[in-house]
Amino acid sequence: MNIEELEFIDQNNVCLYYEIDKIEFHLNFTWEFSNYNEDEGEAKIDVYAENCQQWINGICHPYFPSSEEMREVKSAIEDIVLQDLNGYGIDEWLESRELDDEYFNEN
Q1: Long-range contacts: 88-91, Cβ < 8 Å, 24+?
Q2: pLDDT tens string for the chain (107 positions)?
Q3: What angle do CA 16, 18, 20 make, to 5 degrees?
Q4: For labelling alongside 53, which of 7, 27, 33, 98 has CA 20 to 30 A away?
Q5: Are 1 and 26 in contact (CB under 8 A)?
Q6: Residue 77: which of 21, 15, 20 has the closest Cα?
């Protein structure tokens, strides 16, 4: 997996394409903030594999990345997202979390 070939990353999605020995991998991931320490300005994210495919001889097969691949993807996403928390929506996430806390504390 060549993680430098991240095709697309936005506020919650990442697409990755690579080829090994004529086998194509089309991997889609979603990610979200899971924790934020306002005092230190540090955030953590969770990453989920979504709609990952392996193409062999033109035939699509479901594919799920290994634990090691998931760690590598998560690390690559963190390298990008954690450099620009505001650009990737930390303020919106904090606001949503605050609204969730208010709602569940009322009920």
Answers
A1: 88/11, 89/11, 89/12, 89/33, 90/33, 90/36, 90/43
A2: 555 556 567 778 888 888 889 999 999 999 999 999 989 888 999 999 999 999 999 999 999 999 999 999 899 888 888 888 888 889 988 888 887 667 677 75
A3: 150
A4: 33
A5: no
A6: 15
Sign, CA torsion 99/100/101/107: positive
> Which amino acid makes up residue 94?
L
How many degrees, rounded to 5, is the angle at CA 66 between CA 62 and CA 68? Answer: 155
Give me the residue label for tokens 């991931």. Answer: 29
